[in-house]
Design goal:
single chain, 142 residues, alpha+beta, Arc Repressor Mutant, subunit A, 3-stranded antiparallel β-sheet, two-stranded antiparallel ribbon
């Protein structure tokens, strides 16, 4: 389930021959469960990544139209600003992330990066690993 939530699940297929044919016709992704598309489309269109949960027996994908709509079922995400939400998505896709790489990716100051990362840690959306210059931040499951 952790792989699903981080949009990095392994390739599974009941019928590899049909999957191969559909992939050759550009009708499906051969490797994965469509997570490549689910990961790239929101980024290309500047939208939040979906929130993935499991409601037995269903895998639920929650898509938002913006970072600011406040309609997430996980109330912690509703507490994030648009920029913090983008930072959270960046960490989900690129874990582990250092403060420096966060700064460089978003072009923000050290203080802004520290403030965003601290808020994400305090909401238990990401984990702080290590201390000092070697500190990194990793995605935490919902």
């Amino acid at each position: 389930m952790e792989k699903m939530k981080s949009l990095d699940a392994p390739y599974l297929s009941k019928n590899p021959k049909i999957t191969f044919a559909f992939e050759k016709l550009d009708l499906s992704e051969r490797r994965g469960l469509g997570f490549t598309t689910i990961r790239t489309l929101p980024t290309e269109h500047k939208l939040p990544l979906p929130v993935v949960t499991f409601d037995n027996p269903f895998l639920v994908f929650e898509f938002s139209r913006s970072y600011d709509n406040g309609n997430h079922t996980d109330n912690r995400i509703n507490l994030l600003s648009s920029n913090e939400g983008k930072g959270f998505d960046f960490i989900k896709l690129n874990s582990p992330v250092t403060r420096k790489s966060y700064e460089e990716h978003f072009g923000v100051s050290r203080k802004t990066a520290e403030r965003h990362l601290s808020k994400l840690v305090s909401l238990n959306l990401i984990n702080r690993v290590g201390a000092g210059p070697a500190t990194s931040y990793s995605f935490t499951s919902y």
